[in-house]
Amino acid sequence: MLKKCMGDPSLIIPTENISIKDNLSYEENPVQILDRQVRKLRTKEVTSVKVLWRNQFVEEATWETEEDMKKRYPHLFESREISYQGTNSLPSTL
């Protein structure tokens, strides 16, 4: 038996902001790296990063391998490396 369902209008994504192709698909682009973790297996360690994708909420972020993300989207990691540099330097006052 079917029941009446009330949809949540806050979960609707406007289609004007998404470039949909003729075959009704679109490419999702990463926006930011939210977290990083290392999972230890029996013989190796796998580094994963939590990726926030465009047109998705933070709760929908996914865990991807760091190696794969560095190959496909190196610009996400360049900005993090630059932000870590210079954090130990103190401003000089003359």
Automatic annotation (TrEMBL):
Pfam families found in the cross-reference section: Chromo
Leader sequence residues: none
InterPro entries: Chromo-like_dom_sf, Chromo_domain
Segments forming domain Chromo: 32-78
Source taxon at top rank: Eukaryota
Name the record gives this protein: Chromo domain-containing protein
Organism: Solanum verrucosum
